[in-house]
Write a structure and sequence with these properties.
The chain is α/β, with parallel strands linked by helices. The protein has a single domain, classed as Rossmann fold (3-Layer(aba) Sandwich), CATH 3.40.50.1220. The chain has a 6-stranded parallel β-sheet with strand order 5-4-1-9-10-11, with helices on both faces. Helix 5 packs parallel to helix 8. The longest helix is centred in the first third of the chain and has 17 residues. It is elongated and about 50 Å long.
């Protein structure tokens, strides 16, 4: 069975009503990234950061997977489908995808805010949408923080993503601006024989090598086209 790897970004979830910060001058829901998405922000004002991610989690819980998510899940009978996502939501899983690697974490999970927490493999499911600084703590007594890779932190799943992409027969980049490094560099890891596609309304060859076929459509429109083509 051929290996099909999907690399999804924020544009993938935008159709489900989850806003992206890169569409609004570096603001995320009217907050500066430096104030809510860095380790320094957590040290400076953990209440604000926790409240911000509680609101994002609440938003994600009310969102639904869109057609693009569903088409990817529906490819599993035909291919060995592996999803690599930059998104912190769980919409791929809720659409039915079996193998999802979260490069930037999963907001439905929590982890310790103690030393070296960015490298931990211990995660705690969050019931509902709210984490409380005082009541939700790890066994060592540190408050739980969102399982999210903040700016300035390592991307522990990066090497696993490279391994998946280097083994791909088909590679689909969808809804990513390819502006966030180091993960944007993953598009250069595909093997020579790989069929590669870049789905984005603004897709052009300044973002991807010429090995990629450009599909200048929304996530749902582009995945509908590829689903019909592959099946």
């Amino acid at each position: 069975m051929k290996k099909l790897v999907v690399f999804s970004g924020a544009g993938m979830s935008a159709e489900s009503g989850i806003r992206t910060f890169r569409d609004s001058d570096g603001l995320w829901e009217n907050y500066r990234i430096e104030d809510v998405a860095t380790p320094e922000a957590w040290q400076r004002n953990p209440e604000l950061v926790q409240r911000f991610y509680n609101e994002r989690r609440k938003n994600i819980l009310t969102a639904e997977p869109n057609l693009a998510h569903q088409y990817i899940a529906r490819l599993e009978p035909f291919f060995d489908v592996q999803v690599i996502t930059q998104n912190i939501d769980d919409l791929h899983e809720r659409a039915g995808s079996s193998h999802v690697l979260h490069l930037h974490g999963n907001i439905r999970l929590a982890k310790s805010s103690g030393p070296n927490a960015q490298f931990t493999q211990e995660f705690y499911p969050i019931e509902g949408w709210e984490l409380d600084l005082k009541h939700d703590q790890c066994p060592q007594g540190y408050p739980l923080r969102p399982h999210v890779v903040w700016f300035g932190e390592a991307v522990p799943a990066y090497e696993d993503a490279i391994d998946l992409i280097q083994d791909a027969d088909i590679f689909i980049v969808i809804g990513s601006s390819l502006a966030v490094y180091p993960v944007a560099g993953l598009i250069h890891e595909i093997p020579a024989h790989c069929q590669a596609f870049y789905i984005d309304p603004k897709a052009d060859y300044s973002r991807v090598p010429t090995q990629y076929q450009l599909i200048k459509k929304t996530a749902s429109e582009g995945m509908a086209q590829l689903f019909q083509q592959f099946t």
